[in-house]
Amino acid sequence: MANRKRVKADNFAVDNLDYHYLSSKAKVNVHMKGQQQKVTADIRVVKDSALWISVRTMGIEGLRVLADRDSLRAISRLSKEYYQLSYADLYLLTETDIDYALLQAMLIGELPEDYNMKNKGLIDDEFFILRRFRGDYKIRAYISRTLLKLEKLFVEKKKGKDGVKVLYSDFKEITDKDPIQVFPFKTKIEIGEVDDLNISLKKMDADIDFIRVEIEKDPMRLPFKITDKYEVITAQDLRDKLKVK
Known about the structure:
By secondary structure, the protein is mainly beta.
C-alpha cells in the first residue's frame, strides 16, 4: 500500500473544465445481464443547467434524454414511451442517490460541486484522495497529482456492498490556446458489489470512448418534443413494471 498522509484539500487545485456550453460524441459499449450493446451518443451540456443525450444504433435514434436540476426526462423511440422522473423517483427505482450535479460531474469527469475543498484529505505518491458522505453513500475521489484531474471516483453505500466505480483516462487537450483544457476521452463505469477498490459481481459496466469534445461559444439547441403517439409512463408505472416497492 502506498504511503499516505493527511493534508488540507485547499492545498491543491483541481483543474475542472472551464466551459459554459459543451458538445461531444462518443461510442458506448454496455454489458448488462450477459448481453452487450454498442451505441453512439451525441451529448450536449449547458453547465450546471441541462444535459441532453441522443442515443443511436446503426444511425437510428432509439433514446433521447434531457436532464436538468429538477428532473430527468426520456423518450424511447422504439417503445413509443415518454418518462419523466424526479431524482427522488430515481432513488426509489435504483436505490442510487444521484442528482443533476453528480450526473454532470460523472459524465464530464469532474469533482462533484458539493465537495468542500476545506475538508482534509489524503495524499500518496500518485493521488490526492478526498472523501465525503452523501446521504446513505460514501464517495471517494482520486485526483492525479500530475494532471490535477479526477481519475477515479467511487460511490458506495455506507451499509451494504452496492457501489459504482468510474475510471477516467486518455486525457487530451481540447483547446489549442491558453488556457489549455484537458478532457478524459475514455471513461469506464462499473456497477456492482464493492470489494475494497474493485467491483465484484458486476451488474453492469460501460466503456465510453469520446470521438469529439468541443467547447462551444454559442448556445446549443436541446430539442425535446413529445407528441400524442407517445405513452406517458409515470414513476409508479415503472415501479410496478420493475416490481420495486
